Each structure stands twice: as structure tokens, then as C-alpha cells.
DNA sequence: GTCCGTAGCTCGGCC
DNA sequence: AGCTACGGAC
């Protein structure tokens, strides 16, 4: 090939920094890519460049992206650039790549080839079983906390022994004990959790240098996107694979690191330069996405972080409009404002619904926006939240499939053994579990010995029926029945479908709909294993589709996406930044990065919204504005809040209650709306004593001393205030009785 | 022993 | 508001 860089079409239209990254010679390269600086473009061109100009075989390329959807898009774009030879390269998430590798060598780590993947829910169920068998007090050892400690240990490559060695407190030692048993039970169940996928691949490479070398030679070029969100284990994996070739091309932006809670460690990107001897660094600061005003807002917010590398986004595409701030009386008014703004801009601004996105910090904030959209007939899609795969009927069915595939899956067995009802209760399961413990086998092995276990009556025949059912279903798999048909067979033969059909409630109808959808998804896969792997690893962002609807999602899920018009909502201290981050400077910086991510998703118009009063956890309380709003220069903001008259507000609440169903809204959403429509009432203004108190204000109590207000509920004489005291923890007090004064 | 309704407790973000 | 723990009915 004689194409030189000066006329290589793969470098056309790139700025000098982008072109330098794409045509990088080889060896380790760190691309610091600010938001909207064209990093996806750089990555795809780089891959195409390797294949065309460097004559690298596509099979020698491993590219890691953050979501499966991003992987599919990248593959398609490379395909457009270089043609179908691109098929043989691996473009996937860390988790998907690891599953692929582990499936090639399951026995090396003591697993069997049909191992299954546990999601967070499964993992917590198993941990909860272990905690109670150890007699741990669930108050002192909440399952979720143990689960997250174990998860964090794995993402830092600490095994049970290492965690025990680090433990300084009895609590930590107990968690390490739970961890050790958890790993044993996972192995016994032939299951891995999400963190295991990375941890075990790293272990595989560490224990079997020959296997590592095989992959080092195969993947001669490594590319990793969103490097700021890698954890210790993922980083170690990259170092293992890249050690030989040193062709490690990483892209990221430390200002967009927002997954600290699951172990993401910004040091991986900040210290990448030290990981290899001669790391080249390229900085992309020119932004091609947003207006300068939006970038100025983003820059001014993020500049408040201490722990960062200085960076300044700029564009040559003009300053655009000011960002718009809206302050509503309550969340319902905030949502109504969002709805009417969308309708107005769609009519007068020539925009489509799909040009708009609404972001929130926590999933529960979607509800009020959804209600407003339903009332106005705005079609929308919520990304994430209660995921499809988290729905009960889907989890039940998937558990059956997993159990068919992998008979030792204890969590799946426990979930479905009495679904549909077969008269097998906790007592009978406990008997089998006792027998299993005596025999030193797994629950599954003991199940067939249910008579010896002393199971009687209905439960006895129930277990017998269950064993027959499972054998019949496994027979279908041996006959190579494809996954879609297998689900149909399960629904009929188990009686699951008839149980749902017996009662035609709205819930059951939508469950049957969901199951049909599951059948059609499953039909796209050839084998049960392929279907199970794919469904275990779907990311929230993978669900985004191209329809003309407004997209609602958390700011986390929005990372990597862009929209012409963005609403960043519920900008209130305690929500965004989240209450659990307020007293932890490092976490507060992560919240700020998250805010930065949200702001930089917007191309043309950015709305920042908040409400003075918000219903949460079933109660309404006063809010205080997000501190991030104070970090924006006022000159960049236009306040578009409208003070409505009482009549206007009244007609807004009562006037347009049209409930329609033509917009693809699920029946459950409509039902939910129907039961919660009159949730908001605003009393005559708060009394002085209430208005003196807001979340975050320090107070002194007559007997408990100093504390901080965390919530205020109710009005007038009934007003109560929740205060976190340093002496006795959180207390809820009736304001008119409590001996309180301002600190 | 299992099933079903009610009371009490928790409530962040995700592959 | 949604899930586990308990008590009564079968």
C-alpha cells in the first residue's frame, strides 16, 4: 500500500490532534478526549487505519467499548470504511470479551462449560443465604452492603484471603468470611457474577502464561474507550494483554469519570503515562458538539474540582443561546414546564421528539416527568429504571432457562421451584438444604433425594412434578430446540402461562406481552447459551432505539450520548448532588463530574430545572438549590421561570386530564398514572419556623446537641423535621414541640 | 405446612 | 412507593 498520510482519506476532515492519534505509529498512546471532541470518530478511523494503512489483520484487533450498542455501532462504521473483512475483529465491552475468553477455557478455573452469569439480584440472594446461615444479624450486616464490599474487593483484585488479611475490624472479617463462602457457592452452582467475569479472566491469564501468550499474540492491537471508568481489575487486564505488543491505545476523559461506586479508578487514566515507558499523549480539546455557552457552563462547573487535569473545551461554532433555568414550585410544575417546552419547540422550532432528552440523577425522578408526558400525549421512552430483564415474569423464565442449561444453579432453583405454585414452601426447601449440608453436596444434588430429606404431602408430589418437568425441558435442548421455541415449551408445559391467563388483570396481560417479547428476542439467537450470555450482559444504554420519542434516563446512562435539547432536572442539593455525597469531598467531585457529563450532552439548548418543593418517598418536602447552579456565571443563564397566577396554576392541574393510549405507553404506566394523579397539594405558604429550616441547615437540640436538617415534612402545626444528630443518628421531630434552635 | 393479606422498613448511580 | 416479616385461614 502506498497511500501516504497526506492523502489518506482516513485522515480527511480531522483536526491535527485527531489525525495524529489516528496515524499513531504504534506503542502506547493516551488520548485525552474532552467531551464532544470526536473520540468515537478517532477510534473508528484508527481501527480502519490499522487495517488499511498498516495492513493489520482485523482478527488482531481487540476494541473495548462501554456498551454493547457502542460496540455494534463502531463495528458497523468500520465496516463502512474498510468492508466486511472487519467482521473478524473483536469489538465489545470488557464483560462480553471476558465471557468469550472464559467460555474457551472453563475447566482451567474449575468451572464447567455451561457456567451461567449471576446478575446483582442473584448475587445478593446468594449472599443473603450465606449471611443467614452464618447467623449474621441483617441489621449489622445488610446484604447490599456486604455485596458491595465483595464487589469492590473483586474489582480491586482482592480475593477472600487478601480481604481477610486487610481486615482490621470484626465486621470486615465477617464480610471476608461471607466472601469466601460466596465464592465456594458460586463455583458449586457453576455461576459467576459480573465482577468474576473480569477477575476470573485476570486469574486465568495469571495462572496460565501460555493461555495469556496466546491472547497477547492474537490481540496485537488493543483499543479501550472510556478509560477513566476502568477499575483496577480491568486496568490490570489491559496491562496483561498489552505487555507484549505494547500497542495499547486508550481514550478517555478524567472529567467524565462517574463510576467510582463500582470501582472505577481515575488513577488508571491519570497514571497511564507511568504504566509504560514511552507513552505518547494527545489531547483533544476542540469540541464539535455544543455551543460555546454550553461549554462555558461545563468548564465553569468542572473547574471547581480539585482532583483533575486542567482542560478547557472550546468550539469555533459560535456562542449560541444562554442556558435556561426554570424553578418550579414543585416537581409537578417542573415536569409540566418540560412537557410544554417540548411541545412548543416541536411546533415552532421544527424539532422532532427524538431531539429531546430529559436527564435526572435518580431513577425515581422519572415518575413525575412521565405523568406530565402522559397527560400531554408526549411519546417517550424511559431507558433503564426497572429493566425488562428485572421484571418478575422475565426473571422467572430466565431462571428456568438457566436451570435447564446449568442444573447446579442454586439461586435459579430456589427462585422457580415453586413457580408456578406446586405446594413447595420454605420448610420443604429447608429440609432438602439440611440434607444437602449433611451429604456435603449442593442443594440441587439433594433435591432428587427429597424423600430421604423427609419432604411430605403436597411438597413431595410438587418436587416430583418439578423434576419431571426439568427433565422434559432438558430433553428439548438435547433435541436442539431453538431458544424461542424452548420458552414457548416452558410456558405451556410448566403451567406458567395458564397461571397468568387464569386471571386477566392488567398486570397479567402485560406480563404475557412481555413474555411474547422475550420469545421474539430469544428467537434471534441460535443457541440457549448465546441467548443467556447476551441477555446477562445487556446494558441500559443498549435499549436506546431510533423511534421519534423523547428519551428519559439517568445522567449515568446518558454518558457518551448527545441530543440537540437537553433538560437537566431536579438540580437540588440532596438529589443532585446526591445526599450521600454531600459530606465526602471525593464523592462530591464525582457528582460534579456527573453534572459536567449531563451539561455536555447538549448540542444547542440546555435547560436546567429544579423545584422548591419535591415529593419523594411518599412525602413532600422543601428543597435547596443545587450548589452546582451557583458555580455557573449568571451571565450565561436566562431565568425562564414563570410566576403563574392561582387560576393559571389551578387550570394546569385540573384542566387537561386527557389520558390517551396511542403513544405506545404501556398499560402498567397508564395504570400507575391513574392511581397517583392527585399527588400534589400545596398548602398556604409555610410558617416562619418551617421556612427557617431547610435540608443542610445546622441546628442544636436541647438534649441531643448538634445536628443537620435532612428533611422537612408537612406544614403548619403538623410540620415535622428530620435531623441527623452526630450523637444519636437520625430523628424525626414534631417541629412545634422540639426544643430546637439554629446553630 | 402452605398460601395470602397486612404491617413495618428502606429508599443512588450500573456492567 | 416497593419489598420482607409476620399472623391467620385452609
From TrEMBL:
Coiled coil: none annotated. Residues 668-687 are annotated as: Disordered. ATP binds at residues 33-40. Residues 292-560 form the UvrD-like helicase C-terminal domain. GO terms for cellular component: cytosol; DNA helicase complex. It catalyses: Couples ATP hydrolysis with the unwinding of duplex DNA by translocating in the 3'-5' direction; ATP + H2O = ADP + phosphate + H(+). GO terms for biological process: recombinational repair; response to radiation. Residues 12-291 form the UvrD-like helicase ATP-binding domain. GO terms for molecular function: 3'-5' DNA helicase activity; ATP binding; ATP hydrolysis activity; DNA binding. InterPro entries: DExx_box_DNA_helicase_dom_sf (IPR013986), DNA_helicase_UvrD-like_C (IPR014017), DNA_helicase_UvrD/REP (IPR000212), P-loop_NTPase (IPR027417), UvrD-like_ATP-bd (IPR014016). It is an enzyme of class 5 (isomerase). It holds the Pfam family UvrD_C. Keywords: ATP-binding, DNA-binding, Helicase, Hydrolase, Isomerase, Nucleotide-binding. Its EC number is 5.6.2.4. It comes from the Bacteria. Belongs to the helicase family. UvrD subfamily. This is ATP-dependent DNA helicase UvrD1. It comes from Acidithrix ferrooxidans.
Amino acid at each position: 500500500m502506498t497511500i501516504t498520510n497526506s492523502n489518506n482519506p482516513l485522515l480527511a476532515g480531522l483536526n491535527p490532534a485527531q489525525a495524529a492519534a489516528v496515524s499513531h505509529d504504534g506503542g502506547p498512546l493516551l488520548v485525552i478526549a474532552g467531551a464532544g471532541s470526536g473520540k468515537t470518530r478517532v477510534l473508528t478511523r484508527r481501527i480502519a487505519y490499522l487495517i488499511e494503512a498498516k495492513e493489520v489483520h482485523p482478527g488482531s484487533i481487540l476494541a473495548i467499548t462501554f456498551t454493547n450498542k457502542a460496540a455494534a455501532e463502531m463495528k458497523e462504521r468500520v465496516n463502512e470504511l474498510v468492508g466486511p473483512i472487519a467482521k473478524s475483529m473483536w469489538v465489545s465491552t470488557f464483560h462480553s470479551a471476558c465471557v468469550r475468553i472464559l467460555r474457551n477455557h472453563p475447566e482451567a478455573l474449575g468451572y464447567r462449560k455451561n457456567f451461567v452469569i449471576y446478575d446483582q439480584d442473584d448475587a445478593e440472594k446468594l449472599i443473603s443465604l450465606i449471611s443467614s446461615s452464618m447467623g449474621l444479624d441483617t441489621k449489622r450486616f445488610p446484604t447490599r452492603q456486604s455485596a458491595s464490599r465483595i464487589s469492590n474487593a473483586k474489582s480491586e483484585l482482592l480475593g477472600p484471603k487478601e480481604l481477610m488479611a486487610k481486615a482490621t475490624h470484626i465486621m470486615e472479617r465477617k464480610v471476608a468470611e461471607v466472601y469466601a463462602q460466596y465464592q465456594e457457592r458460586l463455583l458449586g452452582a457453576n455461576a459467576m457474577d459480573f465482577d468474576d467475569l473480569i477477575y476470573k479472566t485476570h486469574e486465568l491469564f495469571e495462572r496460565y502464561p501460555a493461555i495469556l501468550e496466546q491472547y497477547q499474540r492474537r490481540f496485537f492491537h488493543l483499543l479501550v474507550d472510556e478509560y477513566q471508568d476502568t477499575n483496577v481489575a480491568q486496568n490490570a487486564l489491559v496491562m496483561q494483554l498489552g505487555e507484549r505488543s505494547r500497542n495499547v491505545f486508550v481514550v478517555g476523559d478524567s472529567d467524565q469519570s462517574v463510576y467510582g461506586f463500582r470501582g472505577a479508578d481515575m488513577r488508571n487514566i491519570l497514571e497511564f503515562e507511568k504504566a509504560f515507558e514511552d507513552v505518547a499523549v494527545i489531547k483533544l480539546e476542540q469540541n464539535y458538539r455544543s455551543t460555546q455557552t454550553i461549554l462555558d457552563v461545563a468548564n465553569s462547573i468542572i473547574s471547581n474540582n480539585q482532583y483533575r487535569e486542567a482542560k478547557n473545551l472550546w468550539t469555533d461554532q459560535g456562542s449560541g443561546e444562554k442556558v435556561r433555568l426554570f424553578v418550579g414550585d414543585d416537581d409537578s410544575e417542573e415536569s409540566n414546564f418540560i412537557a410544554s417546552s417540548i411541545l412548543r419547540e416541536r411546533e415552532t422550532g421544527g424539532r422532532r421528539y427524538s431531539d429531546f432528552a430529559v436527564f435526572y440523577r435518580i431513577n425515581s425522578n422519572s415518575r413525575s416527568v412521565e405523568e406530565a408526558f402522559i397527560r400531554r400525549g408526549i411519546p417517550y421512552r424511559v431507558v433503564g429504571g426497572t429493566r425488562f430483564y428485572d421484571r418478575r415474569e422475565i426473571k422467572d423464565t430466565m431462571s428456568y432457562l438457566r436451570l435447564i442449561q446449568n442444573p447446579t444453579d442454586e439461586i435459579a432453583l430456589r427462585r422457580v421451584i415453586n413457580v408456578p405454585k406446586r405446594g413447595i414452601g420454605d420448610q420443604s426447601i429447608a429440609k432438602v438444604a439440611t440434607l444437602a449440608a449433611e451429604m456435603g453436596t449442593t442443594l440441587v444434588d439433594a433435591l432428587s433425594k427429597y424423600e430421604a430429606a423427609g419432604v411430605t404431602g403436597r411438597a413431595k408430589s410438587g418436587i416430583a412434578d418439578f423434576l419431571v418437568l426439568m427433565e422434559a425441558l432438558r430433553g428439548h435442548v438435547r433435541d436442539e430446540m431453538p431458544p424461542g421455541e424452548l420458552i414457548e415449551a416452558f410456558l405451556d408445559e410448566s403451567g406458567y402461562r395458564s397461571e397468568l391467563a387464569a386471571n386477566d388483570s392488567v398486570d397479567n396481560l402485560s406480563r404475557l406481552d412481555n413474555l411474547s417479547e422475550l420469545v421474539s428476542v430469544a428467537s434471534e439467537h441460535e443457541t440457549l447459551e448465546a441467548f443467556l450470555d447476551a441477555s446477562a450482559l445487556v446494558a441500559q444504554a443498549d435499549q436506546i432505539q431510533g423511534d421519534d420519542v423523547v428519551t428519559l434516563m439517568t445522567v449515568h446512562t446518558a454518558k457518551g450520548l448527545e441530543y440537540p435539547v437537553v433538560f437537566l432536572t431536579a438540580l437540588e442539593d440532596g438529589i443532585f448532588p446526591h445526599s450521600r455525597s454531600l459530606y465526602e469531598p471525593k464523592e462530591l467531585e464525582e457528582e460534579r463530574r456527573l453534572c459536567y457529563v449531563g451539561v455536555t450532552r447538549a448540542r444547542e439548548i440546555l435547560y436546567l430545572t429544579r423545584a422548591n418543593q419535591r415529593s419523594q418517598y411518599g412525602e413532600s418536602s422543601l428543597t435547596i438549590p443545587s450548589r452546582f447552579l451557583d458555580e455557573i456565571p449568571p451571565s450565561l443563564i436566562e431565568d425562564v421561570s414563570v410566576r403563574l397566577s392561582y387560576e393559571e396554576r389551578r387550570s394546569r392541574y385540573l384542566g387537561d386530564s386527557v389520558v390517551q393510549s396511542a403513544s405506545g405507553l404501556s398499560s402498567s404506566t397508564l395504570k400507575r398514572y391513574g392511581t397517583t394523579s392527585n399527588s400534589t397539594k400545596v398548602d398556604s405558604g409555610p410558617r416562619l419556623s418551617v421556612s427557617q429550616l431547610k435540608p443542610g441547615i445546622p441546628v442544636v437540640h436541647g438534649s441531643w446537641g448538634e445536628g443537620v436538617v435532612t428533611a422537612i415534612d408537612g406544614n403548619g402545626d403538623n410540620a415535622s423535621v428530620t435531623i441527623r444528630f452526630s450523637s444519636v443518628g437520625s430523628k424525626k421531630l414534631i417541629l412545634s414541640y422540639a426544643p430546637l434552635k439554629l446553630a
